[in-house]
Amino acid sequence: MGLNNRYIKFEDSEVERICIANFSSDGKGVTYEDAAAVTSAQLGTKFRGSSIVTFDELRYFTGLTYIPDWAFYESYSLKSITFPNGLSSTGYGSLGRCTSLERISFGRGSVTPIASMGGAGLLKRLNVYSIEQYLQLCSGFSLDSTTGCFSSEDPHLLVQEQEITRFVFPSDVTEIKGSVLKGISSITEIVLPPNLTAIGKYAFYGTGIVSLTIPSTVTALYDQAFSGCESLRNITINATITALNSRMFNGCSSLTSVVLPQTLETTEGWDVFAACSSLKTITLPASFTAFNSYRTFQGVPLESMIILATTPPAGASNLSINNSCKFYVPYSSDHSVLNAYKSENGWSNFSNRFYELNQDGSVPNN
What string of DSSP letters covers 249-264? Predict the structure, then answer.
C-alpha cells in the first residue's frame, strides 16, 4: 500500500476525531493524500477552542499555505504543534491563549512571523531549520529560561516577558551578527556553535555572561563585542585574530582573567580594556607588536603585565596605565631584551618597573 493510501496515525485522539470528521475521504481515517489536499480555507477554525494536546501530524497537511486567523485560539491544552513546509503566514490570534503551549516546530521554507500569540504558554522549544528562517519567524513571544533550547540569533522580542538565562546558538550558525544579544542582562551563559567564524559588533554588549571561550574557528571579532558585560569574570580567546578592536572589553568591571590568542598583534581604536576595574594582570603573546589603541587600560588597576614579545611593542604611550604596574619580559642571558624595553621610546618611562621572567617563563618574586 502506497504512502498516500495509508492512514495517518494521530497521537491525539481528539485531533484524529476532528480530522476524520472534516477531512477524511472515506469517513474511516485520514490518509496522507487527504491531509495534503486540505487547503488553508478548509482548515479554518475547526480546531479553535478544542481540547487537543498535540498536533505534530499537521506537518503532513502540505497543501496549507498559511494558518488562518484564530485557527487554534483558546486550545488551552495544546502543548506541541508542527507546521508543514512552506507556510507564508500564521494568522492573527492563530495560537492565541494556547496557555499550555510548549513547543512549535516549523518546516523548511516557512518564512512567516508568528502573529499574535497573546496569552500563549511559556514556550520551551522552537524548532527551525536555519538561522535565516528564525529571523523571519519570530515576533513577540517568550521562551522558557530553564531549558536552553533556543534556536535564535535575534531574541530581543522573545525576552520581553521572560528572562532568558541560557542561550544556545544553533549548530549551523557561522556568523553571529551585530547586537544579537545586546542589553539582555539576564543571559548568564552562552553556548557558541562549533563552526563559528565571526562575532559582530555589540554582539554580547551588556549581557550577564560570566565566562566564555571563543573557539579557534573565529577569524573576526568586531568592536565592543563584550563591552559592558559587568558580570564577565574570565574569557579565553582562542580565536585566530590579529587585533582586539575598540572598546572590546570596556566596562567589564568583574573581569579578572583574559587569555589572549597567540596570533594577537595589536590593539586598535579606543578603550579596549578601559574600566575593567577588577583586572590585575594580563599576558601579551610573543606575536604582539603594537598598542594602536588609545587609553587601552584607562581605569584598570593592573599590578602586572607580562609581555612575551622580545621586541618592544610600539605605542607604549597609549597604555594609560597606573603608576604601580610591573612589567615582565622574556629572559635573556645577556639581558638584551630587558635593556631594549628600558631604552625604547615610550617604554623608557617605565624603566624602573621592568623585570625579567625566570628562565622557565614563570614570574619572579619581587
Answer: TTT-TT--EEE--TT-
Point out the least confidently predicted range of 24-28, 120-124, 252-256, 312-316: 120-124
Whether the CB-CB separation of 192 and 215 falls below 8 Å is answered with yes
Q: Is the pLDDT of residue 146 over 60?
A: no
Residue 154 DSSP one-character state: -
Stated pTM of the model: 0.62
**How do 234-237 and 211-214 pair as beta strands?**
parallel
Q: 86 near 65, Cβ under 8 Å? A: yes
Exposure string of 220-252, with b = 16+ CB inside 10 Å and e = fewer, is ebbbbbbbbbbbbeebebbbbbebbbbbbbbbb
- In angstroms, the CA 312 to CA 7 distance is 76
Place of cell 507546521: 83
Highest mean pLDDT among 91-100, 106-115, 283-292: 283-292
For the chain, give the mean pLDDT.
84
Cell reading at 138: 519570530
Domain ranges of the chain: 1-164
Rounded CA separation 198/223 (Å): 12
Q: Which of 20, 74, 22 is nearest to 51 (CA)?
A: 74
Helix spans in the chain (H): 13-23, 32-37, 40-43, 131-137, 336-343
341: Cα separation from own chain's centroid: 41
- Give the pLDDT confidence score for residue 108 in this predicted structure: 65
In the block, cell 517568550 appears at: 142
Of 325, 310, 313, the closest CA to residue 356 belongs to 310
Nearest C-alpha neighbor of 36 from the set 54, 23, 17, 27: 23
> Residue 180: what pLDDT?
76
Contact 301, 277 (CB under 8 A): yes
Range with top average pLDDT, 103-107, 322-326, 338-342: 338-342
Quote the radius of gyration of the chain (alpha carbons, Å): 28
